[in-house]
Fold this sequence. Notes:
Blueprint: E1 3-9, H1 19-27, E2 31-32, E3 35-42, H2 48-60, E4 64-70, E5 78-79, E6 82-84, E7 111-113, H3 118-127, H4 142-154, E8 161-167, H5 182-198
Parallel strand pairs: 1-3, 1-4, 4-8
Antiparallel strand pairs: 2-3, 5-8, 6-7
This protein binds pyroglutamic acid.
Amino acid sequence: xxxxxxxxxxxxxxxxxxxxxxxxxxxxxxxxxxxxxxxxxxxxxxxxxxxxxxxxxxxxxxxxxxxxxxxxxxxxxxxxxxxxxxxxxxxxxxxxxxxxxxxxxxxxxxxxxxxxxxxxxxxxxxxxxxxxxxxxxxxxxxxxxxxxxxxxxxxxxxxxxxxxxxxxxxxxxxxxxxxxxxxxxxxxxxxxxxxxxxxxxxxxxxxxxxx
Length: 211
Ligand code: PCA
């Protein structure tokens, strides 16, 4: 059976839980559309997160890689369109590092596109009654860092597709902010996997984005 790798992050920024790590844990060991799903946890640390991602990719040889991260304050499940070649941290990571205006890969391209069918994914999640929108920026913290590292790694392995999905807070994290239950987000990432395995060429529909 072929493998799909799903990664999530450990908690960061003073939180005690990260929905993305919980989603990866929930999906680990499941079978989706005839593919074995491996869930892995990445440290919220510049550099180390990409090292761990590459290690997981070497170990599992996935045909599809879905990296998931928390975007507190967002109301929707947001497939990211593009990873940019810059680290610019507003807060320190879990190892106390705070790179500012630094390239992720020196001399690397300014950006990489997701190779996931982001519009088809958004449409399918909405069809299932889940809040979803394409996002035009994954930020400049560890999530964008991992997303760029993933796409840089996949640049010469075009058969392996990959991308990044940001998810809202869990209800227990959110005070006055939007949130979604873990079961909903886990089902959503399951749908993301199924759509990505099925749809090779994205649909091009208007109105699927956050801005
Ligand atoms: N969210 C952060 C890093 C880890 C996570 O889950 C981000 O959006 O960069």
